[in-house]
Amino acid sequence: MSDSVRSQTADVIVLGAGIVGVSAAYAARQRGLSVVVVDRREPGSETSYGNAGIISSGSITPLNNPSLWNALPKYLTNRHAALRWDPAWAIRNADWVVRFLANAAPSRLRPRATALHGLIGASLKLHREWIVRADAGQRIRETGWLKAWRSDTVGAAKGEQAFLAEYGIASQLLDRQAISALEPNILPVYKVGLLHTQTASVGSPGAVVKAYARMFAGAGGEIRQSDIRAIEPDGEGWRVVLADGGMSARHVVVALGPWSPDLLRPLGYRVPLAFERGYHREFKPNPARSLQRPIHDAEGSFLMTPMEQGIRVTSGVELTGRDAPSSFAQLDQVIPLARGVVEFGETVGEPWRGARPTLPDSLPMIGPAPRHSGLWLAFGNQHIGFTTGPATGAAIAAMIGGATPPFDVGPFSPSRYL
Ligand SMILES: Cc1cc2nc3c(=O)[nH]c(=O)nc-3n(C[C@H](O)[C@H](O)[C@H](O)COP(=O)(O)OP(=O)(O)OC[C@H]3O[C@@H](n4cnc5c(N)ncnc54)[C@H](O)[C@@H]3O)c2cc1C
Question: Ligand 1: which of 13, 36, 51 to mutate, most ligand atoms within 8 Å of CB?
Answer without folding.
Answer: 51
